[in-house]
Request: fold
Amino acid sequence: MEVKTANFEKVASPKATTVSGAEAVIKCLLEEGVETLYGYPGGAIMPVYDELYKYQNQIHHVLTRHEQGATHAAQGYARVTGKVGVAMATSGPGATNLVTGIADAQIDSTPMVCITGQVGSHLLGSDAFQETDIIGISTPITKWNYQITKAEEIPEILAKAFYIARSGRPGPVLIDITKDAQFDSLDFNYKKCCGIRSYKPIPEINLLQVERAAEAINNAKKPMIVFGQGVILGGAEDLFKEVVEKSGVPAAWTILGLSALPSTHPLNVGMVGMHGNYGPNVLTNECDVLIAIGMRFDDRVTGDLSKYAKQAQVIHFEIDPAEINKNVHADIPVLGNVKETLKVLLELIKPNKHEAWHQEFKDHYQVEYDKIIKNDLNAERGKIGMAEVIDEINTCSKGDAVIVSDVGQHQMVACRYSKFNKTRSNVTSGGLGTMGFALPAAIGAKMGTPNREVVAVIGDGGYQMTIQELGTIFQTKVPVKIVVLNNGFLGMVRQWQQLFFDKRYASTEMINPDFGTIAQGFHIKNRKVTERSNLKDAVKEMMESKESYFLEVVVEQEENVFPMVPSGASVSDIRLE
Amino acid sequence: MEKKNFTVSAYTENNIGLLSRISAIFQRRHINIESITASRSEVNEVMRFVIVVSVTEEQVKKIVRQIEKQIEVIKAFYHLDEDMIYQETALYKINSAEFVEDLSIQDFIKESNARIVTVTPKFFVIEKTGKRHETDSLYEKLKPYGLMQFVRSGTIAVTKSEMPISNILEKFDTTN
Reply:
């Protein structure tokens, strides 16, 4: 007797129809509600592309210019919509080009399904043309992966793929389909997956732990919240805001948690971590109860672990049991989806204000404002600073835009200074720090939220890593706004070279092409700003453009991002200069 | 914290690729696997991995959680040597001429509770199941006679306490 290892929805489905494996793939995507997918065709995935041709009125395939771009676009789409992003590629180099995006989605918990073609099953292991062991390669960077060699496996495996990608702590799933499985036929009958016996996406709530957490919060004199993307992934933003407001606890965010709480909220005290705000970093080591919500204590957040919040009782709200005690010991671990656990917590906590404690955050902010922020935003001489550009974007967007940032100095500045009213508005590569992420991710983000303004903020280095995706923008006419902050350097590495390697600028200076001419070649409206006096007008023109727009801003070459917790230092040893 | 021998037991589905998914968890953390075996378990269609590593308890706790996080792993546990009944099996292949010429070999076999598996005119094969030091001790005794081949299995182990795996699986069948 066959053992049942997964459950599928019991639906009175229509009679099975006989289709090819390739057609079954498309029908599965439609069943899962996929409207847009990103990919690049090639030999081993051609049968599926042939079906995409037939179904082009029902499903929108976006041809990116590189498979890496397809994954980042799928990620951008997933991050703004909460839906599963889908990327498709052929075997061999097509599949290996997905690797960076998959690794990025894994570490940033982004729901994504990647479908790759594979050589015919009779050729597996023969070093056939464009054969690569993508299952072996993707194993450590996927939540789950599977190689389909028989057409009849397609509906069940794809149902499982979508279920696994979106449930619990989301992540990327790769499904490799041999060419013969795409050609062979099967009786198609789709049932969504609703359970896998070896997989428990959401741990059961232990009410006692929530009660202990509430007691600790109620008794705390100097409590502090650090929240991450778990609040967004759990769809718990409103509930979270209620918890913050009722408890009166100052709340700081990780860069993936950014936008879960409006920027202007009085209890939003800013960013933690290496380039985070002064107050939340210093006060992490002064609080008596640290309430971590849907975050994983990344080393860029904690700095030296042996000097991180040692004085505090740590409460950790988390969906993934493997994150408990991984980096920071949790005195009170609270497992579960934060949407469930915070709901219980909200009833148990007592209203409080913590005014004196909150004043400490304000005092620290004032120190940071006087030393850093004031100059960042109000410089009158010298070249334009990165923060001024972000500030102009805020002025135009009024906090309603989606900001997609790349990786480096501009990313830290964008996260520090962007203002957000709505959740799922900050899209950036956090854990993996993937340069080249922003341009393709912005394409996916704009397609996911066509009614919102999407602005990609990119450095001159990262821009050139996926610059070919301008072709995708040109072809699809997706109205993405692109801002390149050009300092002629790989700025973050240069900053480290200046501070820690005696200014030996090894291979960080960039001799750049004329970006305007390149944009022109793709027929994208463009403008270059070098003078402060033109900045406001240029940003306004970009934001008001109905079509895609490229804005290059030549910024100060050797600007440093401060505050900074030097690598290996304690968060309370954060430097202001 | 000091390093100790821990035996990790993982109950899993029987799927291609799970071995590499599990071994990658150790590889990523630069941890050497002392031994690894996979076989059917007491539950129909469920596999059991037995992995021996020398790590700190803090490390093994984190590893077990990472293993359990894998989609096709049903449950994982870790145990110390004293909580387990464990054995290894070794095979020794020896030239038959030595066996006939020197009767002391026959004494070693008897003393160590080993078993002769096969005898041919050219070679014979001895099997010994026991603890590592026991199979090592027989190895040292037979080595002077010229071991033609030697091989030893990974550790297989059962726990002294109950494994609640069947309950976990039953729950799935009834709750869905």
DSSP finds 23 helices and 22 strands in chain A. The interface with chain B takes residues 3-5, 7, 135-136, 139-140, 143-147, 164, 194-199, 320-322, 324-326 of chain A (CB under 8 Å).
